[in-house]
């Protein structure tokens, strides 16, 4: 932990988000830039379309070793170059050249960063960072949460529970089915996220392959760029896609699609946190106290839902950033301005708050138990919820104005089941229908909730 950190992600919560450090730290950005430059150089060599000779397997291993064997010393060296150049991508170029100069690759030094602009390097680096963080950290954690919810949905699929609409008692559901609602929402959003192709470009200073064509006019550079970008897809589920028509910058529209998908997932989880908070408040879900922990500085009895609250707060911060990215990133003056550069460096902050929220939510889920007795007790305290069932069956029987009759019986009143029995006895319907109506209880009136909770 950096005790002097301004950002709590780097201070208070640093240990909880270490999984994202390999993807969004400043050294990580430099590593991914080196990766892009080295792979581009290797592809130029192997294409046979330029004057660059074909590298030996040992030379390719040397180049890939620059990012595969990434070290603190590598990052420090790049920053030393940057102190002079004041240009981080040019410093990456100089770093690679210096590593090549005392090897058999020394005669290929000037092919590093050949015909490209810094944005070619940057946009591919960021595309890879986003892809790898999604594949290796974000999506696996979300799948863990879905897995925990799935266990709860199945375990409590038949547990009747009072529903509330507008904060008032409503037709019963089951606890498991309400968990299933969040599973279904999350799975849809996850499927959408995983199907997004992250676009990248490799076409020079204004998107026209000007320098490429000046040097090698007979090469099909758009095809070269497409194949190079797609070469990063091997072994990955989250795919990159070449954007062949751009200005100097890749327009970031696919980044926004990713961020919007994560934001939607976060909104679902924020909704879940708030529901869990209410279930805890009602005593339907209880939290396991941990020895030594304090819930309140003054009220000794308290066990607060702090993990769900922490998660909710971090989801809000993350979504505010994702919303800003969606407004900012697709807009760039003419062929390019640099205002997106500092914004891109905040990607890790949005992902960090999201991931922290997932970690805290999962922690909260690990500390709770479902109070089945309290849930059933509170449901039975609201017999009025069966009014819907009775009036619907009476409609089936063509009974006159059944809704109005049940409204007169129940609206704004406190009832017990005996009140319904007396009402049913006074109905002018067959004995068979009366028996049917009297079988309806708050515990049995759950429709297909149990089946829905158990469905795949």
Could you walk me through the main structural features you see in this protein, from its secondary elements to its overall organization?
The protein is mainly alpha-helical and 456 residues long. The chain folds into three domains: 101 residues, Fumarase C, Chain B, domain 1, CATH 1.10.275.10; 258 residues, Fumarase C, Chain A, domain 2, CATH 1.20.200.10; 73 residues, Ribonucleotide Reductase Protein R1, domain 1, CATH 1.10.40.30. Helix content is 59%, strand content 5%. The chain has a two-stranded antiparallel sheet. Strands 3-4 form a two-stranded parallel sheet. A hairpin with a 2-residue loop joins β1 and β2. α2 crosses α5, α4 crosses α5 and α6 packs parallel to α13. The protein is elongated, with a radius of gyration of 30 Å. The two termini are 42 Å apart. The model has no long low-confidence stretch (mean pLDDT 96).
Write the layout of secondary structure elements.
Layout: H1 21-24, H2 26-47, H3 57-68, H4 72-85, H5 88-100, H6 118-155, E1 160-165, E2 168-174, H7 175-194, E3 198-200, H8 210-215, H9 221-230, E4 240-242, H10 253-282, E5 285-287, H11 306-328, H12 339-344, H13 347-365, E6 368-370, H14 372-380, H15 387-396, H16 402-410, H17 417-425, H18 431-438, H19 449-454
Parallel strand pairs: 3-4
Antiparallel strand pairs: 1-2, 5-6
Helix pairs in contact: 2-3, 2-5, 2-6, 4-5, 6-7, 6-13, 7-10, 10-11, 11-13, 15-16
């Amino acid at each position: 932990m950096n005790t002097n950190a301004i950002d709590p992600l780097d201070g208070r919560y640093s240990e909880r988000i270490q999984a994202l450090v390999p993807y969004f730290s400043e050294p990580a950005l430099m590593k991914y830039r080196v990766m892009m430059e080295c792979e581009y150089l290797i592809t130029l060599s192997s294409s046979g379309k330029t004057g660059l000779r074909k590298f030996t397997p040992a030379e390719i291993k040397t180049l890939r070793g620059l990012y595969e064997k990434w070290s603190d010393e590598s990052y420090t060296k790049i920053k030393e170059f940057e102190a002079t150049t004041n240009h981080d991508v040019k410093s990456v170029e100089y770093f690679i050249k210096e590593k090549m100069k005392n090897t058999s690759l020394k005669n290929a030094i000037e092919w590093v960063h050949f015909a490209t602009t810094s944005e070619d390097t940057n946009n591919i680096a960021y595309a890879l960072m986003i892809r790898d963080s999604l594949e290796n950290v974000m999506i696996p954690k979300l799948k863990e949460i879905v897995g925990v919810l799935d266990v709860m949905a199945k375990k409590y699929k038949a547990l009747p529970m009072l529903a509330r609409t507008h904060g008032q008692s409503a037709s019963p559901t089951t606890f498991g089915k309400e968990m299933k609602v969040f599973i279904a929402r999350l799975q849809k959003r996850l499927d959408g996220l995983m199907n997004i192709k992250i676009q990248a470009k490799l076409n020079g200073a204004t998107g026209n392959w000007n320098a490429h064509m000046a040097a090698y006019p007979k090469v099909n550079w758009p095809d070269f760029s497409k194949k190079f970008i797609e070469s990063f897809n091997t072994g990955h589920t989250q795919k990159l896609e070449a954007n062949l028509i751009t200005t100097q910058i890749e327009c970031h529209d696919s980044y926004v699609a990713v961020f919007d998908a994560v934001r939607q997932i976060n909104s679902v989880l924020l909704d879940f946190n708030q529901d869990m908070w209410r279930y805890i408040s009602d005593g339907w879900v209880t939290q396991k106290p941990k020895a030594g922990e304090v819930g309140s500085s003054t009220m000794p009895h308290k066990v607060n839902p702090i993990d769900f609250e922490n998660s909710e707060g971090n989801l809000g911060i993350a979504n505010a950033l994702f919303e800003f990215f969606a407004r900012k990133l697709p807009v760039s003056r003419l062929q390019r301005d640099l205002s997106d550069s500092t914004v891109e460096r905040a990607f890790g902050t949005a992902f960090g708050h999201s991931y922290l929220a997932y970690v805290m939510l999962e922690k909260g889920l690990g500390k709770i138990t479902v109070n089945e007795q309290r849930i059933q007790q509170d449901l039975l305290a609201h017999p009025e919820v069966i009014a819907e069932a009775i009036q619907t069956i009476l409609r089936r029987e063509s009974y006159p104005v059944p809704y109005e009759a049940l409204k007169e019986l129940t609206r704004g009143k406190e009832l017990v089941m005996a009140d319904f029995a007396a009402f049913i006895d006074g109905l002018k319907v067959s004995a068979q229908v009366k028996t049917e109506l009297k079988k309806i209880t708050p515990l049995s009136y759950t429709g297909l909730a149990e089946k829905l909770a158990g469905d795949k």
